[in-house]
Amino acid sequence: MKSNDENIKKEIGLRIQTLRKQSGMTAGDLQQVTGIGLSTLQNYEAGLRQPSIPAIKKIAHALKASAPYIACLTDNPFPPQNTNAPVIPGLVAIKNDIASHAGEKPVLAIEQEILRSKNINPSSLSVLQSNDELMSPTISPGSQVLIDTDDTEIHEGIYALEDRNGLVVLRHCRVIPGDNAVMLSTERDAEMNTKHLNNEEFKRYKVLGRVVSVVNWL
């Protein structure tokens, strides 16, 4: 008969493996992000070894999950929301705190199951109001744009970028393989506004996060 400690190790391993697969990461990807050895991670997932608290925190951050959930202290996979505003059960309040002075009040509430299905951590979301016509029609002026602030590594998508003057813009971004460069482009007048920046030039921008949804008000 298995001891309670062995059952906990197995459950922790199962939760790590499930979250990792849901995120689309390989064990090697998780090793690179956390700095934890690959064989150690594999032992965690197999339930052969119980991770330390610091290791659990690293894994939770990489997988955008709750450390207490991985440690089997709760059944909620996402960290708690840092908001005192009342929210309808089943919904998550999203703060408007990017380039805005209204950061004290949540301006959107989203069904938790939608976020779970997209493997998005509610506590990493913020809202930006777009005033840029160059991203129309995908993002119209006045739209509220949902930003995943944990997703700051450029792959391909629309990202919120802040320049050295504090100006925040939304741009299509993608890495150009082999060129060590990032391409920035707009929707409108794309030929005039497309930029190819090398890694040094791209450091002029701070990546605030990736756009995951757009709310266009009628």
From TrEMBL:
User: What Gene3D superfamilies does the entry give?
Assistant: lambda repressor-like DNA-binding domains, Umud Fragment, subunit A
**Where's the HTH cro/C1-type domain?**
16-70
Membrane-crossing residues?
none
Say which species the protein is native to: Escherichia coli
Q: Which PROSITE patterns match?
A: HTH_CROC1
Q: Which UniProt keywords apply?
A: DNA-binding, Transcription, Transcription regulation
Question: In its UniProt entry, what is this protein called?
Answer: Repressor protein
Q: Which GO terms describe its molecular function?
A: DNA binding
Which InterPro entries does this one have?
Cro/C1-type_HTH, Lambda_DNA-bd_dom_sf, LexA/Signal_pep-like_sf
